[in-house]
C-alpha cells in the first residue's frame, strides 16, 4: 500500500463548478499535511498547508480527518486557471522532515 | 520564490556514464531533498539530507548517491546511468527554523539516458 494515495483523475469540470479531492495516508504518526499544485512541466508549488481545524484560502478549503487518516481539498467556483495537478503531501511520521507525495490528481476546467 | 538553483536543467547522457546533478540554495534551509518524477508515479524520494554530511535514503535510492559538504549544496550522483533513470529530477528544501515546514522546489532537471 502506498503511504499517500490519491485518485489520479482526471476530473473534468465546467467553469464555476465545485470540485473536491481526497487523499488518504497510512502513517498515523504523520503531523504535517499540505496540498501542492503542479502545472505541466513545472515544479510543484505550495497551495496551502492543512491544519487540524481546517482552513480556507479564498476559493480553496482544506480539511483534515485524523481518525480516518484523510485530507480533502475543495475548490469552489473553478477557474480555467485552476487546471493543474494537485498533490497531497504528508510528512513521514518517523521523521518530521521527510515529505511523502501522492501521485497527484489532475484537474481540467473547461469553458 | 525560494532561492534554489538546479544544474544542469537538461542533460542527455549515455548508459554507463556517471552523472552528477547539483542543487544550490541561498536560503540556509537545513533540509534538502532529491525527488524523481515519472508518469504514473508522482514524486518519489531518492535521498534527503538533514544537515551537512547527514543524509539518508528515500524510497528509490538504488543506483544513486548523494553528498552534502556544505549547507548550500546537495549533489546527486548516478554512478553508472541506466535508461530506467531517465526522469525529471527535482531538488527541494525545507526547514527555516521551525518544525513541519513546507518544501520549496527547484525548477527541475530533465535527464535522458540513451
Ordered list of secondary-structure elements with their pairings:
The complex is a heterodimer of chains A (111) and B (114).
Chain A: E1 4-6, E2 11-14, E3 19-25, E4 33-38, E5 45-49, E6 55-57, E7 60-65, E8 70-75, E9 84-91, E10 99-101, E11 105-110
Parallel strand pairs in A: 2-11
Antiparallel strand pairs in A: 1-3, 3-8, 4-5, 4-9, 6-7, 7-8, 9-10, 9-11
Chain B: E1 4-7, E2 10-13, E3 19-25, E4 31-38, E5 42-51, E6 54-57, E7 64-70, E8 73-78, E9 87-94, E10 104-105, E11 109-113
Parallel strand pairs in B: 2-11
Antiparallel strand pairs in B: 1-3, 3-8, 4-5, 4-9, 5-6, 7-8, 9-10, 9-11
Which descriptors would you attach to this protein?
heterodimer, A: 111 residues, mainly beta, B: 114 residues, 11 strands, 57% strand
Can you walk me through this structure?
The complex is a heterodimer of chains A (111) and B (114). In chain A, strands 2, 4, 5, 9, 10 and 11 form a 6-stranded mixed beta sheet that branches. The N and C termini of chain A lie far apart (37 Å). Chain A has no helices and 11 strands. The model of chain A has no long low-confidence stretch (mean pLDDT 91). Chain B is mainly β and 114 residues long. In chain B, the strands form 2 sheets. In chain B, strands 2, 4, 5, 6, 9, 10 and 11 form a 7-stranded mixed beta sheet that branches. Chain B has a 4-stranded antiparallel beta sheet with strand order 1-3-8-7, with no helix packed on it. Chain B is globular and about 40 Å long. The model of chain B has no long low-confidence stretch (mean pLDDT 92).
What's the helix count of chain A? 0
The helix/strand order of chain A is EEEEEEEEEEE
Ranges of chain B where pLDDT stays below 50 over 5 or more residues in a row are none
Mean pLDDT of chain B: 92
Largest interface: A-B, 23 and 27 residues
Largest sheet entry of chain B: 7 strands, mixed
Rg of chain B to the nearest angstrom?
Answer: 13 Å
**Estimated share of beta-strand residues of chain A:** over 45%
Number of strands of chain A: 11
Average pLDDT confidence of chain A is 91
Number of strands of chain B: 11
Gyration radius from CA atoms of chain A, angstroms: 13 Å
The N- to C-terminal Cα distance of chain B equals: 34 Å
Which percent band covers the strand fraction of chain B? over 45%
Main sheet overview of chain A: 6 strands, mixed
**Topology of chain B as a string of helices (H) and strands (E):** EEEEEEEEEEE
**Shape of chain B from CA axes?**
globular
Helix vs. strand class of chain B? mainly beta
Structural class of chain A: mainly beta
